[in-house]
TrEMBL record:
GO biological process terms held by the UniProt record: cutin biosynthetic process; wax biosynthetic process
All copies of domain AMP-dependent synthetase/ligase, residue ranges: 86-223
Organism in which the protein naturally occurs: Aegilops tauschii subsp. strangulata (Goatgrass)
InterPro entries, per the entry: AMP-dep_synth/lig_dom (IPR000873), ANL_N_sf (IPR042099)
Protein name: AMP-dependent synthetase/ligase domain-containing protein
Pfam families, per the entry: AMP-binding
UniProt GO MF annotations: long-chain fatty acid-CoA ligase activity
Length: 244
């Protein structure tokens, strides 16, 4: 999954190389690419480092973005939330690429496919509207269970746009963690990666009985839909949910 930031829209960067690194390493690689592309200075030192003294550790120099060398610029009064940032970017750069992903076929990744800011923004509004149709109210909790993908980002932004609390579900500590989070956060709807549906429908996930709906990142099979109906849960494919 690739997320392009709007302020890079006019930068002439070399072709990107996407590898599986930590976020810190990715940022360093990005900074290296920027340096190679423009040879510009993006940070400035505003304070000197200080040696250790009286048992206190040494402190390195302080750097700031070059735009804040004389102090931090005032915040945009129209951007107070993450939704404001996304909405503003979609309005200013509607045709810029925002989300990119590589579909796999027979285990081989294909070329990147992209959605523009406008396309993502419109999809976000549709998903948010569908959540309202389900009766999800502002302040309610909605879970997202799965790996990073465009649907993950769209679901998260829909929550941001409609004042819904987005609760990531992680099973890295075992399947019991997902069961606990659903119950503890009082989640009623979960956006879910297809291969994770079986975990929610497992008898070990006792909190599944409180869920009103699952929204698959693509779709669920007929058996899963029937199993969900038996415990009073509706399962939607992504496309069907968009059309609500």
């Amino acid at each position: 999954l690739v997320l392009l930031l709007p302020f890079l829209a006019d930068k002439e960067l070399p072709p990107p190389v996407f590898l599986s690194y930590s976020w810190t390493t990715r940022f360093r690689l990005f900074a290296w690419r920027m340096e190679g592309a423009k040879k510009q200075v993006f940070t400035i030192q505003v304070e000197d480092g200080k040696p250790g003294k009286d048992g206190r550790p040494a402190v390195g120099p302080v750097f700031r973005n070059i735009l804040a060398k004389d102090g931090f610029p005032p915040l945009d009064p129209d951007m107070r939330t993450s939704w404001d940032v996304f909405r503003t970017a979609a309005g200013k750069y509607p045709d810029n690429r925002m989300l990119g992903w590589r579909p796999f076929k027979d285990g081989v990744p294909g070329p990147y496919l992209w959605k523009s800011y406008k396309e993502v923004y419109e999809e976000v509004l549709q998903i948010g509207s569908a959540l309202q149709q389900l009766g999800v109210q502002p302040g309610s909790r909605v879970g997202i269970y799965g790996s990073n993908c465009p649907q993950w980002v769209v679901a998260m932004q829909a929550c941001n746009g409609y004042s819904i609390i987005c609760v990531p579900l992680y099973d890295t500590l075992g399947a019991g963690a997902v069961d606990y989070i659903i119950d503890h956060a009082e989640i009623d709807v979960v956006f879910i990666q297809d291969k994770k549906i079986k975990e929610i429908l497992s008898p070990n996930c006792t909190s599944a009985t409180r869920l009103k709906a699952l929204v698959a990142f693509t779709s669920a099979n007929n058996e899963q839909i029937k199993d969900a109906e038996q415990i009073g849960m509706k399962v939607y494919s992504w496309n069907d949910f968009l059309k609500m």
